[in-house]
Structure formats: C-alpha cells, structure tokens
Known about the structure:
Mean pLDDT: 92
Low-confidence stretches: none
Structural class: mainly alpha
Radius of gyration: 22 Å
Strand order of the largest sheet: 1-3-2
Amino acid sequence: MTDPNATPPLTVSRHELLVAGSDQTFREFIHGFLAFTSLVESIRDKFGELLGLSGAQYELFITIRHRQGDEGISVSHVAQHLYVSGAFVTMETRKLVKLGLVEKRPNPEDGRSVLLRVTPKGDQMLEDLAVVQRPINDTLFECLDSDEFRLIAARMGCLIRSGQRAQKQMAYLSQLEETTDLFDYS
C-alpha cells in the first residue's frame, strides 16, 4: 500500500525549477501551460473557422502573410518557422491555392523551390479578420505588462529548442528495450 502522506517523487531535478525543494510550482506551471496552449489552439481554430479554414490552414495562411516580404516566402522557410515538415506546408498550401488565398511562383534564386504569397483576396480576408483578432488577442494577453510580454516572447525560441531536445530524448528512451521493461507492470 502506498502511504497517502508520502511525498510524491520529484519530476524535475534542476534547482532552478524547484521551490523550497519541491516541484509543486513546476507541476502547476506545466498544467497551466498546457491549459493555456489548449485555449490558444482553440482560438486559432476559431479564427480559421471564420475564414472557412482549419486551424492549421489559418496558421499557415497568416504566417505566409506576415513573413512573405516583397518577394514571397519559400515552403522551407514557412516549415522552419512553424516547426512542421515541408511536406505538410506543401499539402496545406495546395488547398489555400485552390481557394485563391495564396499564389505560388518559381523562386528565381532557386529553381527547385517556389515562393508563396497571399493573394489580394487573402489580404482582404486577413484585413477583415483583424477586427476580430485585435480584441481577442488583447484579452488573451491582458494580464501581461510590456516587460513581461517581451521577456516571454524573447524566451519562446529557447523553450521550443529545449522542447525539441526533450522530445528527441523521449523518443530515444522510448526505443530502448530496458526502458520498456522498466515500466512493464503486468
């Protein structure tokens, strides 16, 4: 029998993540982070729905618009920015092209790739959507002052890179037979 008064094992060991020797604050942060992520994804999906798109298509669409510059943006740059595969960007871009929201043209600097740009129709749709986005995004982050927002924004890339390393570490550990045997409770 488990002692109900026993302290659960720590889920982190870095002293920067422990408060008074406890990982309670860390666990609360993770649960809150997951809840916030779910809310952001839900809002993203609703933005997409307003445009007749899936959440992922909307994210791709708005990323192209904000990063296209004067010449357009390559599929590989969109994929890198969104941390998805080039194949995913290509597949979803085809749908946006069919809807007349994005156009593709050959990349004059690299004949193997194409450049993506939002069409005038797409620009107008995003302009119309901004009227809804502004108050929603303002509310979403209303609890942050400008210094807090800048700090979180500056650290996001670091968190993503750490997350990618942790994901690779988990994939490696999942493939080890000893790890699988360690958790065999049958």
